[in-house]
Amino acid sequence: MQPSLACAPKATPGDRVAVLSPSSAAPGSAPEVHEQAMKRLVEVTGLVPVEYPTTRRLGASARDRAADFNAAFADPEIRAVLATIGGEDQITVVPHLDPEVVRADPKPFLGYSDNTNVLNLLWNHGVAGFHGGSTQVHLGAGPAVDEVHAKSLRAALLTGERLEITEPGESEDFGRDWNDPAALTQFGEREPTEPWTWAGPARSVTGRTWGGCAEVLLWVLTAGRFPTDPSVLQGGVLLLETSEKHIPAQILRAFGERGLLGAVDAVLMARPPTSNFEVRPSPQERAARRAEQRDTTIETVHGYNPEAVVVVGVPFGHTRPQWILPYGGLVTVDGAAQRLWADYS
């Protein structure tokens, strides 16, 4: 059965929130975008951002980044912790984190991509978080904060309401180069989105979420940082998202062989990015890659669990506009009505 998870009390306007770089320190290389993000965080939430020694420090050691995380959780005046961005080496930070300070004063942590490492650690120690949110990417860049992101950010930090997750109708894989002044005032190239694909039984599922970036989840499992008994996910909702790296069937099969796909009642696969600054396939090629990932996901999941409700194309993870979703909180996947709801309490 799934663990009992603590949902931290919500903040109120004027409270202080930590802004950390537990992976990469993007604010150190693009300070103008970071400054705009901090301004918008105040405007959208009324909360007061607090930076730590490694928030802008490029090349900070894993121990130093972990020290900032531990200090933020140990400070009773800090009511939430936000990651500036992801990265690739947070797996080396996790061993230096102190679960005791996390359990002593649970508070929401927001992040995705490499921050799957921290979200999983909190989940293992009974603290729910939120998958999504990058101050540098979703608050600082572009002409404004996307409404679906702002709505779910306020729900995660302040209101704790139940929201329907909807399709904003457009998406971008990446924004403008942060060294370009236009990054502060313009979005990246956006295109219309395809409808989500629903597969599996026409039934409604409500369960606690676990998951994250597929590549990082593979590292988490390899490092032995997930419970040995996959039944802890029984009846849950698996969140899966990818970076611009296409998720191969082998990774999904590994999750199936580990027992993860068979345990859950529903799987949400995010709309995947299919281009980056270096590789820009044609619109037709990008659509084909998304379709391939869609078909691979549905076929593989149902190979292990025909009764799972599967939704592909949900705008979370490495996409913009981005919904922030509960991690360890409740999500309702209604396969009959083909509607999706998230509880941010």
End-to-end separation: 21 Å
Q: What is the spatial order of strands in the main beta sheet?
A: 6-16-15-10-11-12-13-9
Q: Whole-number radius of gyration?
A: 19 Å
Number of strands: 16
Structural class: alpha/beta
Give the % helix: 25-40%
> What is the global morphology?
globular
* Arithmetic mean pLDDT: 95
Tally the helices: what do you get? 11
Largest sheet: 8 strands, mixed
Strand content: 15-25%
Question: What's the SSE pattern?
Answer: EHHEHEHEHEHHEEEEEHEHHEHEEEE
Q: Regions with pLDDT < 50 over 5+ consecutive residues?
A: none
Secondary-structure blueprint:
Blueprint: E1 16-20, H1 26-29, H2 31-45, E2 48-51, H3 62-74, E3 78-83, H4 99-104, E4 109-111, H5 116-124, E5 129-131, H6 135-140, H7 147-159, E6 162-164, E7 170-171, E8 191-192, E9 197-199, E10 204-213, H8 214-222, E11 237-241, H9 249-257, H10 260-263, E12 266-270, H11 283-304, E13 309-314, E14 325-327, E15 330-334, E16 339-343
Parallel strand pairs: 1-2, 1-3, 3-4, 4-5, 10-11, 11-12, 12-13
Antiparallel strand pairs: 5-14, 6-16, 7-8, 9-13, 10-15, 15-16
Helix pairs in contact: 9-11
Which structural traits does this protein have?
single chain, alpha/beta, 16 strands
Summarize the structure.
The chain has 345 residues and is of the alpha/beta class. The chain contains 11 helices and 16 strands. The chain starts with 15 loop residues before the first strand and ends with a strand.
Describe this structure in words.
With 345 residues, this protein is α/β, with parallel strands linked by helices. The protein has eleven helices and 16 strands. The strands form three sheets. It has an eight-stranded mixed sheet with strand order 6-16-15-10-11-12-13-9. The two termini are 21 Å apart. The mean pLDDT is 95.
